[in-house]
Design goal:
Low-confidence stretches: none
Largest sheet: none
Helix content: over 70%
Number of strands: 0
Family: Belongs to the DASH complex DAD4 family.
Radius of gyration: 33 Å
Oligomer: single chain
InterPro entries: DASH_Dad4
Shape: rod-shaped
Mean pLDDT: 91
Organism: Lentinula detonsa
Distance between the termini: 115 Å
Protein name: DASH complex subunit DAD4
Subcellular location: Chromosome, Centromere, Kinetochore; Cytoplasm, Cytoskeleton, Spindle; Nucleus
């Protein structure tokens, strides 16, 4: 006759291993999804930086043009 305590321990251990395996699988899927999000955000960040630099350049050129226009108009 086998030890009932040992049988119960074996069943519990099997459940723990199964749940741990499922958890590991889910974490791997989550990591993959996070990598995809990070990659997508990298492209968005690059686009945002380019847009911000373009806006700064436009603002600089508008200020410079306005300054030149004002100086040219004020000359006698």
């Amino acid at each position: 006759m086998e030890n009932p305590h040992a049988e119960r321990q074996a069943v519990l251990l099997e459940r723990i291993l199964k749940n741990t395996s499922k958890c590991t699988e889910t974490i791997l899927e989550l990591n993959k999804s996070l990598e995809e999000i990070i990659q997508a955000n990298y492209h968005l960040q690059t686009a945002a930086n380019l847009s911000m630099q373009y806006r700064k350049n436009v603002q600089y050129n508008l200020t410079s043009a306005k300054s030149r226009h004002t100086q040219h108009r004020d000359k006698p």
